[in-house]
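> tool_call: predict_assembly(chains=two)
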Amino acid sequence: MRLELGKIKITDIQFGETTKVENETLYVNKQELIDIAMQDDRLENVNIELARPGDSTRITPVKDVIEPRVKVEGSGVMFPGMVGNKVKTVGTGRTHALVGSTVITCGKIVGFQEGVIDMSGPIAKYCPFSETYNVVVVVTPKEGLETHIYEAVAREAGLKIAAAVGEAGRNVKPDEVVVYETKPLLEQINEYPDLPKIGYIHMLQSQGLLHDTYYYGVDAKEIVPTFMYPTEIMDGAITSGNCVAPCDKVTTFHHLNNPVIEDLYKRHGKDLNFVGVILTNENVFLADKERSSDMVGKFVEYLGLDGVLITEEGYGNPDTDLMMNCKKATDAGAKVVLITDEFPGRDGKSQSLADAKPEADALVSCGQGNIILNFPPMDKVIGMLDYIESQIGGYEGSLKPDGSIEGELQLVIASTIANGYNKLAARTY
Amino acid sequence: MKGENMDKLIITNNNFVYDKYSKEIETKYLNEQTFLQVLECVRDKIHQRHKLLTHPLSGSVKPNETPFKSIIISQKVQTMDFDGLYLIENSIASTKKFLNNRPTPHCSEKIANDFRLIDLSLIENAIKKMYCL
């Protein structure tokens, strides 16, 4: 598969009469976007707000973050299986991305969910979306809407709006076009026969309500491990339905911009041969873990991989999948490096993960979520602060009368995200 | 009455799980006991040769954040489930680490119901998969 990704730089965002991109500014028609979301009659109300870097604005509780993209050439549509009832395979042709902008969904689904994005101040440095121009979609469901349905409605509204905003980039000349290509396996191996064959084992959160991910619209709990071209992910083949633990949730934005895939492509043909992605899940049932990790090991052996990188999403339950995948990939003959964040207690001295295996001897850390931070008050809140103290990383007494917050780094969206799209790391001395 | 799931046992302190499944699957309801006490009960059961079937730390909500936990184990088996024992002991250590950081906060009934709902959803999805065994 060969994908040209046209990057259209966005350096400002404004409301306008039509949704368009002009001179690096993204204009959005507010009513048009509200109408797209309100096609779903299960919603009571939708509001659209804009948040720019440097604004004294706090966005919470954040559900998903999505980069607006559009398929310009090639089969399929953005977010197949989720938008427009189309499931054709994506990942070829040309896609345009409005780089520097996002669509963020925001709203109360359960009382302890999701976290915070500060657009300025000392907390902004922990969050990648403090530096982007954000279209924030605040959704309010009809009274009494069942939680699972509300989650689905909010998720779909975000994807539909992101697809609509992405359309603004269809006929715009990109500032940069990056070409990503992975060939069919035998051809790819023959292209660089002397370079080590490297794969990426991509673990998807798949446990239940607010802990789900979708692959071409299929609930990841229901998949068995499969193999995919990395470029499919850049076209939205994987979308997030995960809402708990703000710091290390993988939003749809992070799937589209997966840094492991990005970096493997940078070295593809230079010092490694990036042959593809093994996709797997993180189920609750231990028999599922056994089955999925066996199949991951089988893929590693069948593909003849020399090395793999593995990322997980979440803490606890997924740590067991991570270790099982690590062991079985090692047994299948590959060298394994794990990428994850850590929860070693506030003093950093406890075990970082809830499971371990002797084979797990190479790990890249994306930081730890337990440190305490002070969030100063902001002039504007998009969403609501009502749930701060019960959000993950908040606690009784977190919210001060002046609107400032004392809380753990866990509260900040994507601050320790376990695929490395963040600014924290750990080093040994 | 217990049908095809007669070989399973749910250990829970979540009344949503008890109300939904106790007629279908044998359920040990640890009313008003803590998350840690549920894990310790499961550990004791594994020592009595039950097999662990679901992950003790299911869910991304950390063990010092939610008061509720439901775990499925088998009815008695012949051999000791050492993998399960390792997992439950690690989970207990991990829970104590988080509780040492900060005890589980007291939450309103509305928030508690959200925690119950998430715990129910996690175990529901595991139960749906039981036909695979």
